[in-house]
Amino acid sequence: MMMNLFFRYRTQIAGYVKQFTYGPASIDLLTVKGAGHLVPSDRPGPALQMFENFLRGQDYSKELPFSFQLHPLKEDYQIQETVTSERTGMPVPGTVSTRKLKLKSRRMSKNKSTAPRERLASAPLNPPPIGTKQDDLVTDLPGLTWTPNFKHYSGYLAASPGNYLHYWLTESQGSPKDDPLILWLNGGPGCSSLGGLFEELGPFHINSDGTTLFENVFSWNKVGNVLFMEAPRDVGFSYRASNVSDSNYNDDYTASDNVLALASFFAKFPEYKNRPFFITGESYGGVYVPTLTSALIKKIQVGAQNGANQQYFSTSSRY
C-alpha cells in the first residue's frame, strides 16, 4: 500500500511524503523542498522537524518543541559598545551594551614550511590508547564561542585488528539518560563524518574565519545523543597501524569494522546498551547504513552483539 502526503514547516509546505507499508513493515520516503545533497545544511529547520517526528513516530508537520535561542557568547568573543548621546557625546546612563561576535583573523604564510607535516606523515603510527569514557571527555574545544549545555566526547574505537575508528559523541541537549542513540555516517565513500558534525547537523559549526565555532540551533542533538563515526578505516582521524598490511576496502569490510567499533563503543558507554538506536547517514551512507543494519541484525539474532538495540534506520539524499 502507498500513500502520498505533504508536510509543513511553520506555515509553508516543506516537502512531500510517500509511505509504503507491507504488513507490519513500513518505509517513509520524504522529499524536502529546496534541499540539495546536504539536507540538514540546506534546510536545517525542516530537516530537524522531519527527523524529530520520525524518531517519535509523529506527524511530520508537528512543530518542534525546542527553543532556538542562542546561548550567550563567551566574554572573549564579545565586543561591548556603549550608547552615547548625539548632543553631548557622553554615555547614556542605563543603556545596555550591544554584543557582537569577535572573529579572529586567519593569516596564512605563502612560504610556510611543510617539513613538520612530512616528518609526521613518515612517522610510524602506533595504536592509540582506547581510553575510558572519562579520558575521552572534551573539556576545552579551541575556538568555541559559547558554553554548551551538554557533554561531548572524542576518541577511538577498536575495529578489526590494527584498525581504529575515530568518533565524536554529542550528548542530547534534552534528556541524555533517556533519549535515543543516533549514529551518523557521511558518505563518499571516504568522506569524514566530521563534515556532518561541523557543517550539517552537529551543534558546532565553523565560522568564516576558520578558527572559531558558532552554535547551530538546529542541531540534531536536541532530539537525541548523536554519535559521529569516521568510517571506513583510514578516513579522517581513523587509521590503520603501520604494522598492519591489510589495505583492502569494500562495503563488507566497512560494515564489519563498524560493527566491531560499535561493540567497542557500547563497552565504553554501557549506559547506551539496549537504548533505542537509529542508524542514519547521507549520500554513500545509502550503502553504509543498510549494510551495517544487515550485519547488526545478524549479530543480534545470534546474541553476538551486546548492546545494540536497533529499531530503525534512515538515509538522507541517497544519490
UniProtKB/TrEMBL annotation:
<dbReference type="GO" id="GO:0004185">
    <property type="term" value="F:serine-type carboxypeptidase activity"/>
</dbReference>
<feature type="region of interest" description="Disordered">
    <location>
        <begin position="105"/>
        <end position="132"/>
    </location>
</feature>
<dbReference type="Pfam" id="PF00450">
    <property type="entry name" value="Peptidase_S10"/>
</dbReference>
<protein>
    <recommendedName>
        <fullName>Carboxypeptidase</fullName>
        <ecNumber>3.4.16.-</ecNumber>
    </recommendedName>
</protein>
<keyword id="KW-0645">Protease</keyword>
<dbReference type="GO" id="GO:0006508">
    <property type="term" value="P:proteolysis"/>
</dbReference>
<dbReference type="InterPro" id="IPR033124">
    <property type="entry name" value="Ser_caboxypep_his_AS"/>
</dbReference>
<dbReference type="InterPro" id="IPR001563">
    <property type="entry name" value="Peptidase_S10"/>
</dbReference>
<keyword id="KW-0378">Hydrolase</keyword>
<comment type="similarity">
    <text>Belongs to the peptidase S10 family.</text>
</comment>
<dbReference type="InterPro" id="IPR018202">
    <property type="entry name" value="Ser_caboxypep_ser_AS"/>
</dbReference>
<keyword id="KW-0121">Carboxypeptidase</keyword>
<dbReference type="InterPro" id="IPR029058">
    <property type="entry name" value="AB_hydrolase_fold"/>
</dbReference>
